[in-house]
Design a protein that fits this description.
alpha+beta; SH3 type barrels; 2 domains
Length: 228
């Protein structure tokens, strides 16, 4: 139902702000997921409703315990117009505070504390590219890139394209020490004075991914290979 008044529009936007913050935080915390528009909309609305209800329930408890210092629910529900006119500043402050608290709660839910559980549920919706780099979130990722011209470069994963579609028009970046081997050569050397390097997926023929636990930097726990 589309709001037809300015007040209705403001309330509509305010109530959905937590869901929007949740979606924005999720987009920045990992690879893009391939969800339908309906699923994305339902998830945003559901998160907004849950966060709004949690924060509002806590606020109602506080208002009931101390009505004189906060909001008098009896007066507000009995004569909302008169109470709003007399206490418009307090109501405005509380409204902004409640929206901010609900938005903060949504951001926390989308953060690292709940990241592992949500990633497990969303794994089937990730691209093969995204799964490679997020399979072991507690490990550092080391990549070895075999390029179409026979060149080989390797280093620690720095960033990667988070696009959901498995397409060639994307890149990953690796940080030093960067290992390099020219086409036709057998010796791999470390490139001096190179802090990072970008690699186009279009030039990859083989991508080797190693997961190294941070507590034991010299231990390689897993290696996976894909062909692009």
């Amino acid at each position: 139902m589309v709001p037809t008044t300015l007040l209705g529009l403001v309330l509509f936007v305010a109530l959905l702000t937590p869901g929007f913050a949740y979606s924005a935080r999720r987009e920045r915390s990992g690879p893009e997921r391939q969800f339908s528009a309906l699923r994305e909309t339902v998830a945003m609305v559901a998160v907004s409703v849950v966060c709004d209800l949690v924060v509002l329930s806590l606020a109602l408890a506080v208002w009931t315990i101390s009505p004189r210092r906060t909001v008098d629910l009896t007066a507000l529900l009995g004569k909302p117009g008169d109470y709003a006119v007399k206490h418009h500043v307090a109501l405005w402050i509380w409204s902004v505070g409640l929206v901010a608290a609900a938005t903060l709660l949504a951001v926390l839910v989308a953060g690292p504390a709940f990241d592992r559980l949500s990633r497990r549920n969303e794994a089937p919706f990730l691209s093969a590219w995204g799964r490679l780099f997020t399979a072991h979130p507690d490990c550092r990722v080391h990549v070895g890139c075999h390029l179409s011209d026979g060149t080989y470069v390797a280093g620690w994963l720095l960033t990667y394209s988070r696009a959901a579609a498995d397409v060639a028009d994307r890149e990953l970046t690796i940080s030093g020490p960067v290992q390099y081997r020219a086409a036709g050569q057998e010796t791999t050397t470390e490139l001096p004075n190179v802090g990072a390097m970008a690699v186009s997926a279009r030039q990859l023929t083989l991508l080797q991914v190693s997961y190294v636990r941070t507590a034991q930097p010299s231990t390689q726990s897993d290696v996976r290979e894909i062909r692009t």
